[in-house]
Every structure is written in structure tokens, then in C-alpha cells.
Amino acid sequence: MSVAAAGLVAALALTGCGSSDSDDAGKGKTSATPTEAGGGGGARGSIDGAWSGVTDGKPIALSVSGKTAAVVADGHVCTGEVTDHGKPMLSLKCADGNTDRTMGSIESNDGTKLVVSWDAGAKDTLTKTEPGKLPKGLPTGLPAELPTGIPAP
Fold first, then answer.
1. In the list 25, 33, 39, 142, which could disulfide-bond 87, CB 3.0-4.6 Å?
2. Are 55 and 127 in contact (CB under 8 A)?
């Protein structure tokens, strides 16, 4: 499990584990990006940030920064983008070729809880995590420090 946890920490560190409104300050945004799009299915809030949960007894982590997304689940690390098909969708590729969580539809989002339905059948209910903190529900026995070569968030 420590390898999966290290992958989770790496994915969150690489994609940014918090959201910042200052990223868009002064850019004169006039249209919504996929992470802000209202769309159908109750997907109302921004999905930017770090999200975590437990599905079938296993921890799931999702990190979104702008149009970039990463999921760590069942020992698989998947990265890709947020697209807009009338509502936000996650289009990902897993490094090991796994396809359990490669195309996900945002079913609902109230800003603190996010529900993602994946084409392969899984449905994840995730809770927004605090910026700079590891998600709750991770397996015990995590290393006190990040593995060598992974920058700290």
C-alpha cells in the first residue's frame, strides 16, 4: 500500500493539491472553463482542487488544476484533462493501461462533495480536501517524508 500512497502523494504534488482564485485574477475571464461550467446533472461548483473518498473499501484521490486532472485508485495512477461535453467530464489515461477510471462524468458537485460516474461502472463520491493536507482515509503506515526525487507540495 505504501507504493500506492507514494503515487497518490506524487500525483497530488504534480497537479497541485489546492485551488487558488488568484490564478485567474486580472485575466478578464468572460466564459466558463469546464471546471466551472454549470451544465446538467447538478455539476455546479468548480472541481478544481483535491478530492478524496473511499469506494469499495479502497481510497480514491482526484486532483484537478484547471483543465488537468489526476486520479489515484486501486494502485493505478491516471492523468488527463477535464473536458466539457455539456457538463464536465474527466478524460484520463492510466500509466499501466488500466481502464477502470478513464472516462468519468461529473454527476453532482456542491463544492464539498463530488460524485463521478466512470464508464467502466465505478461511481466515486469524493469530499474536497484542505489545500496542503493529505486526504483522509489513506492507508496507515505512510512514510513520514516524501520519497527521494518527488518535490514537496
1. 39
2. no
